Amino acid sequence: MAELEEVLREVARKVLGLPEEPLPSRPWRQLPPDFKTLSPPPLPKGPPGKGVGAPPRPSEEGGLGPASAEQEPLRKLRECERKFQRKAKEVEKLEVKLQRAQKAVQEAERDRGRALEEAAHWRKEASRFAAERDRLGAEMARVQEAYAKLRADWAELEKEVEAYKRSIDALEARLRELEGVAEQKAHLEAELARLRNFKEALPEPFPQEALLRVLVLDYPGLGNRPEERVLALIEGYRALLKGEDHPALRHSNRELLAGEPEGMVLLGLERLLLDLASLPLSRWLRTHAFRLEAWLQAGEQPSSPRLREE
Protein backbone atom coordinates (compact mmCIF):
# COMPACT_ATOMS: atom_id res chain seq x y z
CA MET A 1 0.00 0.00 0.00
CA ALA A 2 2.80 2.38 0.84
CA GLU A 3 4.49 1.56 -2.47
CA LEU A 4 1.32 2.50 -4.45
CA GLU A 5 1.04 5.81 -2.67
CA GLU A 6 4.70 6.43 -3.45
CA VAL A 7 4.00 5.77 -7.13
CA LEU A 8 1.09 8.25 -7.10
CA ARG A 9 3.23 10.89 -5.41
CA GLU A 10 5.96 10.41 -8.01
CA VAL A 11 3.45 10.82 -10.87
CA ALA A 12 1.99 13.94 -9.27
CA ARG A 13 5.46 15.46 -8.84
CA LYS A 14 6.26 14.87 -12.49
CA VAL A 15 2.94 16.31 -13.65
CA LEU A 16 3.25 19.39 -11.44
CA GLY A 17 6.96 19.83 -12.18
CA LEU A 18 8.05 19.42 -8.54
CA PRO A 19 11.58 18.30 -7.69
CA GLU A 20 12.00 14.64 -7.11
CA GLU A 21 12.68 13.31 -3.62
CA PRO A 22 15.41 10.74 -3.26
CA LEU A 23 14.01 7.34 -2.38
CA PRO A 24 16.01 4.39 -1.15
CA SER A 25 14.24 1.94 -3.38
CA ARG A 26 11.45 2.05 -5.96
CA PRO A 27 10.06 -1.45 -6.34
CA TRP A 28 7.02 0.02 -8.12
CA ARG A 29 9.10 0.46 -11.25
CA GLN A 30 9.07 -3.36 -11.53
CA LEU A 31 5.27 -3.34 -11.83
CA PRO A 32 3.83 -4.32 -15.23
CA PRO A 33 2.70 -1.55 -17.59
CA ASP A 34 -0.96 -2.53 -17.27
CA PHE A 35 -0.90 -2.31 -13.50
CA LYS A 36 -3.97 -0.11 -13.45
CA THR A 37 -6.01 -2.69 -15.30
CA LEU A 38 -5.02 -5.59 -13.11
CA SER A 39 -7.93 -7.28 -11.51
CA PRO A 40 -7.79 -8.78 -8.05
CA PRO A 41 -7.39 -12.54 -7.78
CA PRO A 42 -10.60 -14.57 -7.42
CA LEU A 43 -11.92 -14.82 -3.97
CA PRO A 44 -11.85 -18.24 -2.37
CA LYS A 45 -15.14 -20.06 -2.34
CA GLY A 46 -16.71 -20.28 1.00
CA PRO A 47 -18.90 -22.97 2.47
CA PRO A 48 -22.24 -23.59 0.84
CA GLY A 49 -24.97 -21.17 1.69
CA LYS A 50 -22.65 -18.21 2.08
CA GLY A 51 -22.17 -15.63 -0.58
CA VAL A 52 -18.81 -14.68 -1.98
CA GLY A 53 -17.46 -11.40 -0.84
CA ALA A 54 -19.87 -11.00 2.01
CA PRO A 55 -18.69 -8.65 4.68
CA PRO A 56 -16.92 -10.43 7.46
CA ARG A 57 -18.64 -10.82 10.68
CA PRO A 58 -16.95 -10.26 13.92
CA SER A 59 -16.37 -13.23 16.13
CA GLU A 60 -17.61 -13.53 19.59
CA GLU A 61 -14.36 -12.20 20.91
CA GLY A 62 -14.82 -9.00 18.78
CA GLY A 63 -12.23 -9.86 16.04
CA LEU A 64 -12.47 -10.95 12.41
CA GLY A 65 -12.96 -14.47 11.26
CA PRO A 66 -10.56 -16.42 9.10
CA ALA A 67 -12.49 -15.56 5.88
CA SER A 68 -12.43 -11.84 6.62
CA ALA A 69 -8.74 -11.95 7.25
CA GLU A 70 -8.18 -13.47 3.84
CA GLN A 71 -10.34 -10.91 2.00
CA GLU A 72 -8.89 -7.85 3.72
CA PRO A 73 -5.81 -7.54 1.39
CA LEU A 74 -8.08 -7.85 -1.66
CA ARG A 75 -10.38 -5.13 -0.35
CA LYS A 76 -7.45 -2.89 0.28
CA LEU A 77 -6.09 -3.66 -3.18
CA ARG A 78 -9.41 -2.71 -4.83
CA GLU A 79 -9.57 0.44 -2.77
CA CYS A 80 -6.03 1.31 -3.81
CA GLU A 81 -6.93 0.61 -7.43
CA ARG A 82 -9.91 2.97 -7.22
CA LYS A 83 -7.72 5.61 -5.68
CA PHE A 84 -5.11 4.99 -8.34
CA GLN A 85 -7.71 5.35 -11.10
CA ARG A 86 -8.95 8.60 -9.55
CA LYS A 87 -5.36 9.80 -9.35
CA ALA A 88 -4.76 8.67 -12.91
CA LYS A 89 -7.74 10.75 -14.11
CA GLU A 90 -6.44 13.66 -12.14
CA VAL A 91 -3.04 13.06 -13.69
CA GLU A 92 -4.61 13.06 -17.17
CA LYS A 93 -6.33 16.36 -16.42
CA LEU A 94 -3.07 17.72 -15.09
CA GLU A 95 -1.30 16.49 -18.22
CA VAL A 96 -3.84 18.39 -20.36
CA LYS A 97 -3.27 21.47 -18.25
CA LEU A 98 0.45 20.88 -18.50
CA GLN A 99 0.25 20.65 -22.28
CA ARG A 100 -1.77 23.86 -22.37
CA ALA A 101 0.72 25.51 -20.03
CA GLN A 102 3.61 24.26 -22.15
CA LYS A 103 1.87 25.55 -25.28
CA ALA A 104 1.30 28.89 -23.59
CA VAL A 105 4.94 28.89 -22.49
CA GLN A 106 6.02 28.17 -26.07
CA GLU A 107 3.81 30.97 -27.39
CA ALA A 108 5.18 33.24 -24.67
CA GLU A 109 8.69 32.23 -25.70
CA ARG A 110 7.86 33.01 -29.32
CA ASP A 111 6.35 36.35 -28.30
CA ARG A 112 9.38 37.00 -26.15
CA GLY A 113 11.66 36.19 -29.11
CA ARG A 114 9.67 38.54 -31.36
CA ALA A 115 9.72 41.19 -28.66
CA LEU A 116 13.48 40.77 -28.33
CA GLU A 117 13.87 41.04 -32.11
CA GLU A 118 11.69 44.15 -32.19
CA ALA A 119 13.57 45.60 -29.23
CA ALA A 120 16.86 44.98 -31.04
CA HIS A 121 15.41 46.56 -34.20
CA TRP A 122 14.18 49.60 -32.31
CA ARG A 123 17.49 49.89 -30.45
CA LYS A 124 19.19 49.92 -33.82
CA GLU A 125 16.72 52.52 -35.10
CA ALA A 126 17.22 54.59 -31.95
CA SER A 127 20.96 54.44 -32.46
CA ARG A 128 20.52 55.52 -36.07
CA PHE A 129 18.17 58.33 -35.05
CA ALA A 130 20.63 59.46 -32.38
CA ALA A 131 23.41 59.58 -35.00
CA GLU A 132 21.11 61.48 -37.36
CA ARG A 133 20.16 63.85 -34.54
CA ASP A 134 23.83 64.51 -33.81
CA ARG A 135 24.49 65.10 -37.50
CA LEU A 136 21.53 67.46 -37.79
CA GLY A 137 22.64 69.25 -34.62
CA ALA A 138 26.09 69.80 -36.08
CA GLU A 139 24.53 70.93 -39.36
CA MET A 140 22.24 73.32 -37.48
CA ALA A 141 25.22 74.74 -35.60
CA ARG A 142 26.98 75.36 -38.94
CA VAL A 143 23.84 76.94 -40.40
CA GLN A 144 23.43 79.18 -37.35
CA GLU A 145 27.06 80.24 -37.62
CA ALA A 146 26.61 80.98 -41.33
CA TYR A 147 23.37 82.86 -40.57
CA ALA A 148 25.14 84.97 -37.94
CA LYS A 149 27.88 85.74 -40.45
CA LEU A 150 25.29 86.67 -43.07
CA ARG A 151 23.56 89.00 -40.60
CA ALA A 152 26.88 90.67 -39.83
CA ASP A 153 27.61 90.99 -43.56
CA TRP A 154 24.08 92.31 -44.11
CA ALA A 155 24.61 94.96 -41.42
CA GLU A 156 27.84 96.02 -43.14
CA LEU A 157 26.07 96.10 -46.50
CA GLU A 158 23.28 98.23 -45.03
CA LYS A 159 25.88 100.69 -43.76
CA GLU A 160 27.50 100.78 -47.19
CA VAL A 161 24.09 101.20 -48.85
CA GLU A 162 23.28 104.10 -46.52
CA ALA A 163 26.62 105.68 -47.40
CA TYR A 164 25.90 105.14 -51.10
CA LYS A 165 22.43 106.67 -50.66
CA ARG A 166 23.93 109.74 -49.01
CA SER A 167 26.44 109.99 -51.84
CA ILE A 168 23.65 109.60 -54.41
CA ASP A 169 21.55 112.26 -52.66
CA ALA A 170 24.53 114.61 -52.64
CA LEU A 171 25.20 113.87 -56.32
CA GLU A 172 21.53 114.37 -57.19
CA ALA A 173 21.51 117.69 -55.32
CA ARG A 174 24.65 118.70 -57.17
CA LEU A 175 23.08 117.54 -60.44
CA ARG A 176 19.95 119.60 -59.77
CA GLU A 177 22.17 122.55 -58.95
CA LEU A 178 24.09 122.06 -62.16
CA GLU A 179 20.85 121.63 -64.08
CA GLY A 180 19.62 124.90 -62.57
CA VAL A 181 22.88 126.53 -63.52
CA ALA A 182 22.58 125.07 -67.01
CA GLU A 183 19.01 126.34 -67.30
CA GLN A 184 20.10 129.74 -66.08
CA LYS A 185 22.98 129.64 -68.50
CA ALA A 186 20.68 128.66 -71.36
CA HIS A 187 18.23 131.39 -70.32
CA LEU A 188 20.99 133.96 -70.11
CA GLU A 189 22.36 132.83 -73.42
CA ALA A 190 18.90 133.20 -74.95
CA GLU A 191 18.50 136.64 -73.39
CA LEU A 192 21.95 137.60 -74.58
CA ALA A 193 21.09 136.46 -78.09
CA ARG A 194 17.88 138.46 -77.93
CA LEU A 195 19.79 141.50 -76.68
CA ARG A 196 22.17 141.10 -79.57
CA ASN A 197 19.22 140.95 -81.94
CA PHE A 198 17.74 144.06 -80.34
CA LYS A 199 21.12 145.78 -80.55
CA GLU A 200 21.44 144.89 -84.19
CA ALA A 201 17.89 146.13 -84.83
CA LEU A 202 18.32 149.37 -82.94
CA PRO A 203 19.83 152.31 -84.82
CA GLU A 204 23.31 153.53 -84.05
CA PRO A 205 24.43 154.97 -81.77
CA PHE A 206 22.33 153.18 -79.10
CA PRO A 207 24.14 152.50 -75.82
CA GLN A 208 24.25 148.81 -74.88
CA GLU A 209 23.62 149.45 -71.17
CA ALA A 210 20.31 151.09 -72.13
CA LEU A 211 18.93 147.63 -72.91
CA LEU A 212 18.84 147.02 -69.13
CA ARG A 213 16.76 150.17 -68.46
CA VAL A 214 14.62 150.66 -71.57
CA LEU A 215 11.85 148.25 -72.72
CA VAL A 216 12.47 147.17 -76.28
CA LEU A 217 9.44 145.54 -77.96
CA ASP A 218 9.74 143.64 -81.23
CA TYR A 219 6.51 144.48 -83.03
CA PRO A 220 7.00 142.34 -86.18
CA GLY A 221 7.37 139.22 -83.96
CA LEU A 222 3.91 139.68 -82.38
CA GLY A 223 2.07 137.84 -85.16
CA ASN A 224 1.75 136.98 -88.80
CA ARG A 225 -1.32 139.09 -89.68
CA PRO A 226 -1.85 142.83 -89.16
CA GLU A 227 -4.84 142.44 -86.82
CA GLU A 228 -2.91 139.89 -84.68
CA ARG A 229 0.05 142.21 -84.31
CA VAL A 230 -2.07 145.31 -83.49
CA LEU A 231 -4.21 143.44 -80.90
CA ALA A 232 -1.10 141.86 -79.32
CA LEU A 233 0.55 145.25 -79.07
CA ILE A 234 -2.48 146.86 -77.40
CA GLU A 235 -3.10 143.97 -74.97
CA GLY A 236 0.60 143.57 -74.16
CA TYR A 237 0.93 147.26 -73.33
CA ARG A 238 -2.14 147.09 -71.05
CA ALA A 239 -0.63 144.06 -69.23
CA LEU A 240 2.66 145.95 -68.83
CA LEU A 241 0.87 148.90 -67.23
CA LYS A 242 -0.95 146.53 -64.81
CA GLY A 243 2.21 144.58 -63.99
CA GLU A 244 0.80 141.38 -65.50
CA ASP A 245 2.24 138.89 -67.93
CA HIS A 246 1.25 138.56 -71.58
CA PRO A 247 2.56 136.52 -74.52
CA ALA A 248 3.38 139.71 -76.40
CA LEU A 249 5.87 140.69 -73.68
CA ARG A 250 7.92 137.59 -74.42
CA HIS A 251 9.10 139.41 -77.55
CA SER A 252 10.76 142.06 -75.38
CA ASN A 253 13.59 142.43 -72.88
CA ARG A 254 11.24 142.76 -69.90
CA GLU A 255 12.93 139.96 -67.90
CA LEU A 256 16.26 141.78 -68.06
CA LEU A 257 14.85 144.99 -66.60
CA ALA A 258 15.11 145.84 -62.90
CA GLY A 259 11.79 147.47 -61.98
CA GLU A 260 9.85 149.77 -64.24
CA PRO A 261 11.49 150.61 -67.57
CA GLU A 262 12.71 154.18 -68.00
CA GLY A 263 11.49 154.33 -71.57
CA MET A 264 10.19 152.24 -74.46
CA VAL A 265 11.53 151.44 -77.90
CA LEU A 266 9.35 149.85 -80.56
CA LEU A 267 11.05 147.90 -83.28
CA GLY A 268 9.23 147.83 -86.62
CA LEU A 269 7.46 151.19 -86.38
CA GLU A 270 6.91 151.31 -90.11
CA ARG A 271 5.33 147.83 -89.94
CA LEU A 272 2.92 149.17 -87.31
CA LEU A 273 2.03 152.14 -89.47
CA LEU A 274 1.55 149.91 -92.46
CA ASP A 275 -0.75 147.63 -90.43
CA LEU A 276 -2.80 150.59 -89.26
CA ALA A 277 -3.09 151.85 -92.82
CA SER A 278 -4.15 148.44 -94.14
CA LEU A 279 -6.85 147.97 -91.51
CA PRO A 280 -10.22 149.81 -91.63
CA LEU A 281 -9.44 151.56 -88.38
CA SER A 282 -10.01 155.05 -89.71
CA ARG A 283 -13.61 154.31 -90.72
CA TRP A 284 -14.23 152.37 -87.48
CA LEU A 285 -13.00 155.29 -85.37
CA ARG A 286 -15.67 157.50 -87.00
CA THR A 287 -18.57 155.21 -86.24
CA HIS A 288 -21.14 155.93 -83.55
CA ALA A 289 -20.57 152.54 -81.90
CA PHE A 290 -16.89 153.24 -81.41
CA ARG A 291 -17.58 156.66 -79.87
CA LEU A 292 -20.18 155.07 -77.57
CA GLU A 293 -17.79 152.32 -76.46
CA ALA A 294 -15.04 154.92 -75.83
CA TRP A 295 -17.44 156.99 -73.76
CA LEU A 296 -18.42 153.95 -71.66
CA GLN A 297 -14.75 153.16 -70.93
CA ALA A 298 -13.80 156.73 -70.13
CA GLY A 299 -13.49 155.93 -66.41
CA GLU A 300 -11.12 153.02 -67.05
CA GLN A 301 -8.41 154.82 -68.92
CA PRO A 302 -4.92 153.40 -68.15
CA SER A 303 -2.01 155.63 -67.07
CA SER A 304 1.74 155.36 -67.54
CA PRO A 305 4.34 156.38 -64.96
CA ARG A 306 6.55 157.65 -67.81
CA LEU A 307 3.94 160.18 -68.97
CA ARG A 308 3.00 163.18 -66.91
CA GLU A 309 -0.21 164.95 -67.71
CA GLU A 310 -0.11 168.77 -67.52
Tell me what you see in this structure.
The chain is built from 6 helices and 2 strands. The chain is rod-shaped, with a radius of gyration of 74 Å. Helix 3 packs across helix 4. With 310 residues, the protein is mainly alpha-helical. The chain has helices at 2-16, 66-201, 226-242, 269-278, 281-285, 288-296, and strands spanning 214-218, 263-267. Strands 1-2 form a two-stranded parallel sheet. Helix 3 links the parallel strand 1 (214-218) and strand 2.
Brief digest:
This protein is mainly alpha-helical and 310 residues long. It is built from 6 helices and 2 strands.
Features:
mainly alpha, two-stranded parallel sheet
Layout of strands and helices, then pairs:
Blueprint: H1 2-16, H2 66-201, E1 214-218, H3 226-242, E2 263-267, H4 269-278, H5 281-285, H6 288-296
Parallel strand pairs: 1-2
Please state the overall shape, judged from the principal axes of the Cα atoms.
rod-shaped
Helix content: 55-70%
Largest sheet: spatial strand order = 1-2
Helix-strand category: mainly alpha
Strand content bin? under 5%
> Over all CA atoms, what is the radius of gyration?
74 Å
Helix/strand order, N-terminal first: HHEHEHHH
Distance between the termini: 182 Å
Summed over residues and divided by their number, the pLDDT gives a mean of 77
Which consecutive residue ranges, at least 5 long each, have pLDDT under 50? 23-31, 34-41, 43-54, 58-64
Q: How does the major sheet shape up?
A: 2 strands, parallel
Give the count of helical stretches.
Answer: 6
Give the strand tally.
2
